[in-house]
Amino acid sequence: MFWLKRNLPRLVIAPSFGVLIWFVYGFILWTIYISFTKSKLLPKYEFWGIDQYFRLWSMPRWHVAVENLFIFTVLFIILCVFIGIILAILLDQKIRAEGFLRTIYLYPMALSFIVTGTAWKWILNPSLGLEKFAIDIGFETFTFDWLVTPGMSIYTIVIAGVWQSSGFIMAIFLAGLRSVDDEIIKAAKIDGAGLIAVYLKIILPMMRPVFMSAIVILLHLAIKSYDLVIALTAGGPGISSDMPAVFMTQMAFHRSEIGLASASAIMMFLTVSAIVVPYLYSELKREDQRN
Amino acid sequence: MKKLLIALIAFALTPNISFAAPKAEVLHWWTSGGEAKALQVLKDDFAAKSGEWLDMPVSGGGGDAAMQTLKARIVANDAPAAAQIKGPTIQAYDREGVVAPYNIDAVAKKEGWDKLLSKQVASHMKCDDGKAYCAAPVNIHRIDWFWANKKVLDSNGIKMPKSWSEFNAAADKLQAKGIIPLAHGSQPWQDATVFEAVALGIGGNDFYKKAFVDADVSTLSGSTMVKVFDQMRKLKGYTDAGSPGRDWNVATGMVMEGKAAFQLMGDWAKGEFAAAGLKPDVDYYCASTPSDNGYLYNVDSFIFFKVKGNDKVEGQKLLASLMMGKNFQKVFNMYKGSIPARLDVSMADFDKCAKKSNSDLNTAAKKGGLLPSFAHGMTLELGVKGAIQDVVTEHFNSNMSSQDAVKKLSAAVKAAS
Questions:
Q1: CB under 8 Å to B230, separation ≥6 — which residues?
Q2: CA dist., res. A74 & res. B6, Å (int)
Q3: What does the alpha-carbon distance between residue B417 and residue B408 come to, in Å, rounded to a whole number?
Q4: CB contact under 8 A, B390 and A255
Q5: What is the pLDDT of residues A178-227, one digit of tens each?
Q6: N-to-C CA span, chain A
Q7: B31 has pLDDT over 60
Q8: Is B138 in contact with B302 (CB distance < 8 Å)?
C-alpha cells in the first residue's frame, strides 16, 4: 500500500509517457530508418544508404521549398513578434473596452489555417478581391497580384500567417506586461525615464522568457506550415510557394516516394533541432544560473 | 471459466463460412454530386444481391487523402476489398505483393472480360505480367477536349479549331474583343492536362508515345518539345490574371457565362454543363483538341487487394462482376460524363459528345492514336510523372524560356527514374 502511494503519480503518468515514447520518438526513429531505404509505394526495410538525401538535394523543387521556408520563417517570426508587442503595449495603456479589443485581435486564432487561407485566397485574388475592389471604386491602375506572381506568392502566405498569429502573440506579451511589477515602472518614472525608455530599457528586457515562448511557438508553426499553404496557394503558381511540409506530403502520398519523403522530413526535423535545441539550452541554462 | 472463455473467443474468431454473405469495403473519393449518384447505382446493385457494402469514402485533395488512408491500411495488414486505383499504380501495388492471389480473375475468365474490353484497357487491368485480372475498369474518360461557349464563338464567326495555329488565330481575335480566350485554372494537374494535349497535337502520336510512355530522354529534350513549350507560353498569354490556383469547375463556369471562350479539360467538365441544364451544340460545343486522330484516355478502375475470409473474397467477386455489368457501366457513365469501358454497351442513350468520344476512340485505336494520359496517371511511374508536371507548371507560371524548360525536363526525368 505504501509502495502504491509513493508511486501513484508515476503509475498515472506511465501510460501517456509510453504512448509518447512510441508515437513520437519511436516514429522519429522509424522515419530516420525509412529515409535510408529505397521505399517507394510502401515502406520497405532493406537498407540502401544515404542515396535518398543525394536525390533530395539534387531536386530543384526541394531547393525552392527550403528557400521559401527561410523567407517565411524569418518574416513570420519577426513580423508577428513586432506587431504582437506593439499591440500589447498599446492595449496595456489601461484603455477603455480593452476586453473587447483583445478579443477582436485574438479572434483570428480561433480560425483554422484552412479558413484563413481560403479567405485570403479570395481577398488577394486579382479578379475577385482587393485589386478588383480598388479598380471598381476608381483606382484603375491599382495592382496587387502577389498571389499569382511567382516569387511574390510566398509573401502572401506571410501576410495571412501574420494576420492569424500576431493576435495570439499579443496575448502572450500582454500577459507578460501585466506581470511586470508596477513599482519598477513608478521608480523609473521618478528617475525621469520617458514611457518609451521604460518599455525599451526596462520592461522588454525583463520579458526574455516571454520572447522565448513566443519564438518557439512561432517557429514550429512556421516549419510545419502545411494547411495554410495548401489553402492559400497550394504551392503555386507553379511550384513557387512550395514548402518542405507540402513537398513531403506530395512525395509520400502523391508520388510514391516514401523514402525520399522521409529524407525530407528528417531534413525538416534537423532544421528545427538545429535552431531550437541551442536556443532552449541557452535560455534554460540562464534560468538555472538565476535560480 | 477459462475454458468457456477460450471457446467463446474461438467461436468469435472462426469465420462462419456457411452463412457468409458477400462483404466488401470500398475505398473511393467519389463524394461529389454526380459521382456519388453514379456510385449509388453500384451500391444498390450490390445490396440487391444481398451483399454487405462498407462504404469508405475519403474525400479531399483529388485522392491524396484517400492514398494516405489506403497506405496506412495496407501497412497495418488490413487492406480494403477494393480501392480506386488506376494506371501503372495497379501493377506497382502488385509488385509490393499486396494484390495476389487474383481473386477476381476467375470472374473475368468466366464472363470473358478479354472479349468485353479493348486490348489496351484490358492491359491496364492485369497483374502478374498480364496473366491475371486484378482490377476492374468502370469508365473511359477522354482528356483532349475543347469546351467552348457557342454564343461567343458564333457571334465572332469562329469555328472549333482544327489546328493549333487556327486556335491561336481565333484566340487573338477574341482577345482583341476583350473576351478571355482560354478559361484555365493554373494548378499543376491542370497545366499538365493542357500540356499533354498540346504535345499530342504539335508532336504527333509517335512523339507523344516516345516522350510520355517510354520516357525517352532524347525526345523529352528534342526540338519538338521546344515547340510544345512555345505553344504553352502562347496559351499562358490567352489566360487571365486570376488563373493561378483556380479550380477547374470555376473555369468551366467562365465558359458557361461567356466570360471566356474555350476550356481544355477532360470530359468530366461535361457534368458541369449538364448540371447547369446546358446542351451540346445548343449552348456549348465539344470537340477534340487538334491532333492527328489522337485520343488521350484515362480509365478509372478499382483494384482488388488480397483479403482474408471467404465472405470478403466473395464480396470482391460480386463487386467485380457488378462493376463490369452492363447496367452499371451505362448508368454510371451517363452521370460521370465518360463512356463505358465495356465495348458492348449501347451508346444510344448517351449525348452527342459521348457518342463522338466513342467513335473517335475506335478511329484512334485503328490509327495508333489511342494513348494513355500522363497527366492523369495512366502512364509513367508516379515519380517521373510528378517530375514532368513540376517542370511544366513551373514553366507555365514563370517566364522560363522553352529551351531552359526542355533542359530542366530531361534533367528532372533522369533524376526521378
A1: B402
A2: 61
A3: 14
A4: no
A5: 888 888 888 888 888 888 888 888 888 888 889 988 988 898 889 888 99
A6: 36
A7: yes
A8: yes
C-alpha B295/C-alpha B276 separation (Å) is: 27
Contact assignment for A59 to B415 by CB distance below 8 Å: yes
**Interchain CB contacts (distance < 8 Å): A and B:** 100
Which cell numbers in the block locate residue A280? 532552449
Rounded distance between C-alpha atoms, residue B346 and residue A98, angstroms: 72
The upper half-sphere exposure of residue A218, i.e. CA atoms within 13 Å in the direction of its Cβ, equals 30
B94 to chain A: closest CA residue: A41
DSSP H helices, B138-244, are: 150-155, 164-176, 188-203, 205-212, 217-220, 223-237
Give the H/E segment covering residue B312.
Answer: helix B310-323
pTM surpassing 0.80? yes
Question: Are residues B332 and B138 in contact, defined by beta-carbon separation less than 8 angstroms?
Answer: yes
For residues B100-119, give the mean pLDDT: 93
> Which domains are delineated in chain A?
25-58+256-291 (no CATH), 64-240 (1.10.3720.10)
CA–CA distance, A191 with A178 (Å, rounded to integer)? 21
Given a contact cutoff of 8 angstroms between Cβ atoms, the answer to whether B183 and B252 are in contact is yes
Amino acid at B288: S
- Which of the 8 DSSP states describes residue B238? T
- Smallest CA–CA distance, residue A127 to chain B, in Å, is 5
**Nearest to residue B318, comparing CAs of B106, B116, B85?**
B106
